[in-house]
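Example 3.2
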Amino acid sequence: MTELFAHGTWLPLTFAGLMGFAMLIYAILDGYDLGVGMLLAKANDDEKDRMIASIGPFWDANETWLVLGVGLLLVAFPAAHGIILTNLYMPVAIMLLGIILRGVSFDFRAKVVADKKHFWNKAFLAGSLITAFSQGVMLGFYILGFEHSMGAIAFSALVGLCVIAGYCLIGACWLIFKTENELQKKAVRWAKTALLGTVAGIALVSLATPLVSPRIFAKWFALPDFFWLLPIPLMTGCLVLLLWRMLNTLPREADKYCWVPVILCAGIFTLCFLGMAYSFYPYIVPNQLTIIEASSAPESLMVILIGALVVLPVLLGYTFLSYRIFHGKAKDLTYD
């Protein structure tokens, strides 16, 4: 342990953990509001208003976690930031356009006359779809080590579709939690459909990751590591089955257990993230650059750590406070 601290190894690993934590929180929180945005395609006008009201107090703040994650990548791992952003320039640019479109649409739809609102609803849906698909494409290219063959492009596009399914799943589960009556019943049906696509996506990534890297294959299937890691896929499978069973019993009298699907989805996302983190460790750029090699100087990291330890509690506190204040079922969203 003394040697670990003497060589400053703990600082890069700490920042990798903080960056991973920020990205995981982003995937869960912004995942559900992107999912709600995409599910607008299946709702009528009144339901769209209630769906957007369910994410109104939260969606903009959820994106702060993405800013934190990318910011940590930039300042703590500048070499990796250059490689990753250079290889993912196009999907990142498209994602940013989607985020901008979402922000503009969210505000404009609340201010235009009623007969113009449908246009901005479609724009919000399109922005959500573009953002989610772009993130999936980036994940696909990252898994393949930024290969740009036709096969890699097809695989990344397929991962993009699977990410859409995952976000729709957690978005539907959020609606189960935040809405009532017919919209809640519809959300249960949407969640069942999205769960099937999410399971397909998990299987696709789980199979592709070890197949494209002998190193990752050895990490997962070498004995006795295989038995130590077995709880991760087993627990993921159990959560999927439990979620499916729960969806088949909702909604219940007095809206009992309406919050459980969101928690189960968050658990599934977390286990998948942990599996991927283990697969790529110690690399931050797959098979090219390790966490230690890509990190800034220890002196710089120590200064940055002080700032991160100030910012992170503020973000956590604000997130907790906003969800505490706006708890309960979604109400009409107004700007009065």
